[in-house]
Write a structure and sequence with these properties.
It is built from 10 helices and 6 strands. By secondary structure, it is α/β, with parallel strands linked by helices. The protein folds into 2 domains: about 35 residues, no CATH class; about 190 residues, Rossmann fold (3-Layer(aba) Sandwich). The strands form 2 sheets. Strands 1-6-5-2 form a 4-stranded parallel β-sheet. It has a two-stranded antiparallel sheet with strand order 3-4. It is globular and about 55 Å long. Bound molecules: zinc ion (2 copies). One zinc ion binds next to helix 2.
């Protein structure tokens, strides 16, 4: 019997129009858990994916000013809202080392990549945000790299950290003004799609995007699982 990867409840195949017609395999989350995932729907900021009535939200306008009108991150696309359920789920996956739990996102992450970045997929380099060696040893896997592998068989490294995540975890103001925690290890002169689990302030992704752009990368986009 198939069980929910999160709560371990038994999953019974739901007879829906979809699986009658397409014989879809049942989801690896039970119905109750799946309902708690909150898709970002409706109008969103075209730059950062936050639900917003305005085309470009206040924060993204500020980012644009910060970079003198040239935000190095052209667009971020996020799938889900970072609600309480998602927080618990990501904690179990990323901090408690439940690697397999991450596979629940495999299909949707791939679908949304194809849907939103089809214009660039053929030439783009998929680049997950790296973890410091310290964190990687602690957690045994990089959740961003796992998401990257869902959408590409040729995930690139290209960046490494000079500052650990601990040093980078600060107040909002300190985060905005902090020094770039990355260094580039490889020159990338194709468009890049950065991958990470959560877009919070956008600081980390923009640090990576800024560095890549300064080193000749023509365009930087990002795909993240959640928008906090
Ligand atoms: Zn469940
Ligand atoms: Zn925005």
């Amino acid at each position: 019997m198939k069980r929910c990867l999160y709560c371990q409840e038994a999953i019974y195949l739901r007879v829906t129009w979809n699986n009658v017609v397409q014989l879809n395999s049942p989801s690896s989350l039970c119905e109750l858990c799946e309902e708690k995932l909150e898709w970002i729907e409706g109008k969103r900021c075209v730059v950062c994916s936050r639900e917003s009535p305005a085309n470009c939200c206040y924060d993204c306008k500020r980012w644009s000013e910060f970079y003198n009108g040239k935000d190095p991150l052209i667009r971020n696309y996020s799938l889900f809202t970072y609600n309480d359920f998602m927080k618990e789920l990501i904690t179990t996956w990323k901090y408690r080392g439940d690697y397999v739990l991450g596979t629940i996102f495999q299909d949707v992450f791939k679908q949304q990549y194809k849907k939103n970045y089809s214009f660039i997929m053929k030439q783009a380099i998929v680049l997950p945000i790296p973890l410091s060696e310290e964190r990687l040893l602690e957690r045994c896997f990089n959740q961003a790299a796992m998401l990257g592998q869902f959408i590409s068989n040729d995930v690139q490294i290209g960046l490494s950290r000079t500052l650990s995540e601990k040093q980078a975890k600060k107040s909002r103001f300190e985060r905005i003004t902090m020094k770039n925690p990355f260094k580039q290890t490889e020159r990338l002169n194709k468009p890049v799609v950065l991958v990470d689990d959560i877009y919070t302030t956008g600081r980390t992704l923009r640090h990576a995007a800024q560095l890549l752009t300064e080193n000749g990368c023509p365009e930087v986009y990002s795909l993240t699982l959640c928008r906090a």
